[in-house]
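User: My advisor asked me to double-check a structure prediction for RagB/SusD family nutrient uptake outer membrane protein before group meeting. I don't want to rely on an old file, so could you generate it fresh from this sequence?
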Amino acid sequence: MMKNLIKSKAAVLVVLSAVLFFPSCSEDFLDRPPEDSYSVDNFYQTDRQVASAANHLYSKPWFAFISNVAWPIGEIASGNARTWDARNQEFSNYSITGAHGTLTQAWESLYAVIAQSNAVINTLPTAIGPDVSEDVLNNSIAEARYIRATAYFYLVRIFGSVPILADNSDYVLEPVVPRNPVEDVYEFIKRDYQFAIENLYDRTMDTDVQAGRVSSNSAKAALSKIYLYEENWSMAYQLSNEVIESGEFALLEEYNDLFLEQNDNNVESVFALQWANTGIYAEGNAIQSFYASAGITGFSDGWAALGPSIDLQEAYETGDERYYATIMEPGAFYPNINGGFTVPETVNHQGTNVGIKKYVIGNPSNGASQSYPNNTYILRYAEVLLINAEAAIMGGGPLEEGIESFNMVRERAGLDPIENPTIEDIFHERRIELALELEFWYDVVRRGPEFAIEFLGNVERGPYNNDTTPPTVDSQKYVPTVEDLLYPYPDSEIQSNPALLEDPVPYDFNANADEEN
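Assistant: Sure, here is a fresh prediction for RagB/SusD family nutrient uptake outer membrane protein from the sequence you gave:
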């Protein structure tokens, strides 16, 4: 029987200081720490040591969310992918309850990212030696604030109103924590990203910035996306345009090259999670375990747990080069998988008559079952261009520049430019450009309940019936309600923190100013 979920990595180390040694309460998300981290007593005495403070934030605490949660929400719920697996199919037919373990993993993993980020942010300033430079200290804190903001961005899009924790130690003696309004969560995120803009290294000025680490322009790109969600078109345009003009990022010439392991941390990568079985990150991801067919990985995984929906397959335009890099058709040949791999004619992920290529890399020399070294993109330059295009089309900047950004993405895919793209063209382009990159659900929902309900209710989620010639579609369509556009809080979290069921409480930014600045 196919494994449906991978166990979260056990907490085996301690982050930065005793800040995370809370009274034992296994259900308390304040005591979420460490899906993994390490001891730092008397460690941060030099610039080099302080510069390593955020290393673990790029991988370990994200494991359960990326490996088990991000694709059921981002791809199955949105209709980009389908499955017969009963548990994950509940994301497709909108029957998720707070008892669903995947939601618990989302909450736990994302709050683990926040807890470990908070440990860096709040403990590092008092843990460093006298010879550490202020720039190095501020850069490491800014990395942690960038990553904390990103975790909150996922939380607010999945659950809506959630508790804001700037310092977990504040709640050790009072673990019942109120949730805060959505607009306050977004304000908190914006302040974190703004701090990151002001304190992260500018890679265009400092070429010694380690590959894979976020930069000041990475933070501008992330903040432009927040303004896009808030429909602040002028700020979304301004920040995305500053990133474009910086020259720090560019499109790779070939779309398929984005998903080759040897091209991790390429010029298009704005922020990516850093996976590896060895070295400073020391953690693999498990996306390939679910995306790949049996036999490709070289291990006992390769569960083909989801397949590209018929709806997604039919959304591609003729000649779109992104199809080959995203979806495996029968007979297609991939020279970079296991020395050369031809897709079997019988490929049939979950009744879709195709397979998945994106994030499938085969059997790498430094991989293991459920633990693969290829990066997971959180933000790419192509998306920055599409943010720029959407903001301009919606009136936030010069239309001709937005159209140019839009068509750069299309032309890289081998498609003709569109002279006057609409918001529907942008939506479609985002779907195809970012397909199976764990993002589409959020794009659908942010367009508002009326659009989301109509779109999601009309997505074809059924399989092919191969008993007919040619195959026909056993249609499956499910219409969500407004309530389905946010997920319920996990039951276990409500039990340990009943304040989640109470009205949101405004976050006191003044009282927490010292923690934020």
